[in-house]
Amino acid sequence: MVNVLAPMCRRRFLINVRILAGMDLEELPKFCYSQVVSNVKRYIDKKTTLYTPIDTLIYNQDFFELFFRPISSELFDLLKNKKLKEADALISRSRLPAIPSNSKSKISNLLRNILKRDKMIKEGSFIYDFDVNYFVIWLDNSLYIADLKKGYTICNAHKKRITSPDILRLILPIYAKGKEFSLDLEINEENNISKIKIVISGEKLIKIDDELRNQKFSKITDEIGPKFPRTTFNFNTNADLEIMVELDETCTYDDLNDLFNTLSSLSEVEYIDLLRKEEY
Questions:
Q1: Quick one: pLDDT at residue 19?
Q2: CA–CA–CA angle 19, 20, 24 (5° rounding)
Q3: Is residue 275 part of a domain?
Q4: How close are the terminal C-alpha atoms of the chain, in Å?
Q5: What is the percentage of the chain residues whose pLDDT exceeds 70?
Q6: Is the four-CA dihedral 178, 183, 188, 193 of positive or negative sign?
Q7: C-alpha radius of gyration, the chain, whole number
Q8: Nearest-angstrom CA–CA distance, 156 and 169
Q9: For the domain that residue 203 is a member of, what is the CATH number?
């Protein structure tokens, strides 16, 4: 009875441990794992949950079933066989409320409209992107990161480290949409250093004098310093602010979200907090 109604492993964290250890589905406690998947589904559906799933791991088959039920098996097989164009076409043909991250939608402020349940946005809409290694989804202030090589998905990613530049390439455009920034990602393969170049257009910058602006630059540098060891601020010839940020290898999804929120204080545009503040 203890294991069923009140498991001794808080939030069934041992399921995470076993998945990370490379165990197959058949090797997991069937009931415990089914409860984990059910809890994630209820969270996605905005129903009452046993606990808030944070950095919860499930197998990719179940992840795709939650978001792409009518086409989940076919999509999973296409991605497994690295048929990316076919996978993208399959999603596009479906009637699912899936919006590609690079969408050229004429609907302005896409993320804001999703969060506000705008009538022009289909109910339950989510943003997605993928490459040969990862598949990411943003839905209602939550990120889901499927590792296509390792076979599992991080659901509602927060405290997990961002372990690959490939993940950065997929999620950064989503962050940029929420802040109305433009950005570039620079990867130094030799020393494994990742740098983000964030640009805030001059017309969107807060209107303060140079002295106050420099003080704000110093304050921001101090605030983000532990996770982002080097930050520089420069104005280009168009009077746009260019911010170069070096990422520490321990950077988490929360850290990256906090970085963008902090830098948003330099802009007059009302920003979107892309990750929900969860109770741990």
A1: 93
A2: 35
A3: no
A4: 25
A5: 88
A6: negative
A7: 20
A8: 18
A9: 3.30.1370
Is residue 278 included in any domain, yes or no? no
The closest alpha carbon to 224, from 197, 194, 261, belongs to 261
C-alpha 134/C-alpha 108 separation (Å) is 27
User: In terms of pLDDT, which residue wins out, 178 or 57?
Assistant: 57
Amino acid at 279: E
Q: Which has the minimum average pLDDT: 65-74, 77-86, 145-154, 180-189?
A: 180-189
Specify whether 16 is located in the same domain as 67: yes
Residue 53 pLDDT > 50, yes or no? yes
Residue tagged 């996605």 (tokens): 44
**222 part of a folded domain:** yes
Contact 123, 25 (CB under 8 A): no
Domain that holds residue 221: 173-266
pLDDT at 119 exceeding the cut of 70: no
124 and 181 inside one domain: no
Mean pLDDT of the chain, nearest integer: 87
